[in-house]
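Input record (one chain):
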Amino acid sequence: MKHSTIQQTRRGQGPARRVGRSLALVLPVVLVLSGTLAVTRVNWSGDPSTSVLTASDTALSDDAKPAAPRAPHEVLRDQLLTELQEKDPGIALTHLQQAVDERPSLASHCVSIARSLGRAAVRVYGPKRAQSFSRPVCDTAFASGVLAATG
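The corresponding structure, as predicted from the sequence alone:
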């Protein structure tokens, strides 16, 4: 009687067990083949002419690729440096303070921008005149930029 009980138990698990065994045999083969195919598609030579790329990837040459988008603080810094040269550092510092007030996300970059303005002011106006434009924008970072450029 024990023998027939064991056979019934095995029969009850039959279909699930067969599917499990089939997956256990087929799945590793599929994974190995897909991994092998993926590795063969990689350009290991480093030669871009033999690279497997889509048409959209090769449509732009190196010269025609658009420039990467610049961060807002970098754009602001460049605008303020231009304004410093065309007008004066006082106007640039005022516009820096206004930009930080309007966009609080720029506050973390305020000190580095003000220091850049201070260094640029020394190059354009000299240390003594550049220091006269100093204001308490971004914790006197402009003044520390002036000092760093003179020292």
